[in-house]
Amino acid sequence: MSPGLRRGLALAVLLAWALHSWAMAQEYSLAIMCWSCHVATLAVAAGLWRGHALLAAAGSLFHLSVGLPSWLVETLVSGRWFPTSVLIHVFPPAAGLLYLRRAGELPRGAVPVA
Asked: Which of the four, 40, 48, 76, 98, has the lowest number of CB atoms within 10 Å?
């Protein structure tokens, strides 16, 4: 993957995070942005920006194994959701996996780091 495309994906992930932060701040404290899936989103963005496959993999794997399932359960139980929540729980892991697919393999140690 070219550095330009990789950094473009990183900026798109950061934009999604910023949009979600703004939406959440309308109803909650910004402290909610310390939840682990939001931190994993920043890890994906940083990994994409720096070309650090382990960081992008850890953030993506965390999203897929913990963040997305937890968010789905919370949404089903509470009946509440934000449109930006869909964006923040689907786009960052997809961007990270696209980068990893182009890189060729999952970096060693990605699972324990996630």
From this structure: 76
